[in-house]
């Protein structure tokens, strides 16, 4: 297997961490600080123009936690970084032994809600922070962006086309995965198609057309190879002339009992051109040929095209979706919320930094619905509170072992579709959407007040 793909395997990712995670863990070890602690992974605030987030990345997190270990090569490298031998011996036998609660992938979530809750010996819980943040950040960012694009397309197919501009191999694979979760019909990424069983799509490039002396010869050559699966790129020279030639090739295919799948537009005024091309094709009786559009698209351009009556049947969306160009990250954090004291009891912890206050204690998120089944509000409560709403966090790991039946990608996709269908339309507006209500429970509010009072004492 290629060495880079070996590098990407979860069990080889223990050094995929920030250096300070290891230095903190070394100090915990040196000071015999092994007691359990609980960390929450959550997103502090929404990116611009977002009113919700589509949670993704949990499967990779769990597989990492189950298999993470330090190899001889890892330990040799860390020895060169001046870590003491006793700590390296500890890492030699490292295994994650904690409990994890999480929101299922494909669930809509909102700011400050715990998405993953990790309770483990503090060294273990600390050491995995970077991997968890990196994994959930990318996939949740892209899944959210892709869901907006799919919603803007109003039922018309969207294909993820961004591989060549996504940020490396790992990002390219994860973008394909979470775009599919969000409702895209498939991807251009062939390796993702193989790895995740995602439908793959592709047409042709301008270079293919330009490699032939005549445009129609390029169309005929491609149609000869794929007589029932061709989409012809018609705007290399002149889109209407290209459409005429595509129609000619389509008629030739009909005489052989085959059908042209579609034509693709990749430049120009897509609204005006699509109307002209649709009219031309329909006049020739080629109603079945689909018009596929691409070229610097995002949810805003797609919404505008459809509002203006563009005759487009499907969209290929690349760079702006695959990099979430308008907001390429979420404000994701992983913070300590409780530690075990010498008494053997867990004690809630909170951070009071201005603009970065965290919620103390072990928590659960409850979702409430209107009578029609649509989402009404969420409440963040302490884990042992009795709240009537539906709890979102489920136990997924116990003592380092996965106890959760990992759903298939299609099952996660179905969860996402169901979750999005229950979000009232006002929250799906591309701009100016209202804030979805997320409240704190009464007991959590009381705990926050008590801790603030305690933590602001001068002698603390």
The structure class reads alpha/beta
Looking at the chains present, what oligomeric state does this protein adopt? single chain
CATH class category name of the largest domain:
Alpha Beta
Number of strands: 19
Q: What is the distance, rounded to the nearest whole angstrom, between the alpha carbons of the first and last residues?
A: 55 Å
Mean pLDDT across all residues, rounded?
94
The biggest sheet amounts to: 7 strands, antiparallel
What does this entry look like structurally?
This protein is an alpha/beta fold and 460 residues long. Helix content is 39%, strand content 18%. Strands 13-12-1-5-3-17-18 form a 7-stranded antiparallel beta sheet. Strands 7-6-11-10-9-8 form a 6-stranded parallel beta sheet. The protein is elongated and about 85 Å long. The termini are far apart.
Helices and strands in order, then pairings?
Layout: H1 3-7, H2 19-30, E1 36-43, E2 53-54, H3 58-67, H4 72-80, H5 85-92, E3 99-102, E4 108-109, E5 116-121, H6 122-127, H7 129-152, E6 157-160, H8 169-181, E7 186-187, H9 190-196, H10 206-210, H11 215-225, E8 231-233, H12 239-254, E9 262-265, H13 270-283, E10 290-293, H14 299-307, E11 314-317, H15 319-322, E12 332-340, E13 346-348, E14 363-369, E15 375-382, E16 390-391, E17 394-398, E18 401-402, H16 409-421, E19 438-440, H17 442-455
Parallel strand pairs: 6-7, 6-11, 8-9, 9-10, 10-11, 15-19
Antiparallel strand pairs: 1-5, 1-12, 2-4, 3-5, 3-17, 12-13, 14-15, 14-16, 17-18
